[in-house]
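Please think about what follows:
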Amino acid sequence: SWEMLTPTKPDGLKEASWLVNGKILVTVGTSGTGISKDMGKTWEVFDSQPFHALSCYKNTCWTIGGRGSVA
């Protein structure tokens, strides 16, 4: 079952999430990118650029945003 521990940072809509190497949660959305190094107990802002999709492989992640932006 789902249990919200703390709100993600930055605040706002999140459109994609990924667990990187079983250790770091990454989440992206229109309000920016946030990361958690303790499985969602605390969050920190990584970037404020809006993104809509996220994919990761090993230690590398790619995001896709509006107007063809990729990071």
Summary: DSSP finds no helices and six strands in the chain. Residues 46 and 59 are 15 Å apart (CA to CA). The longest strand covers residues 24-29.
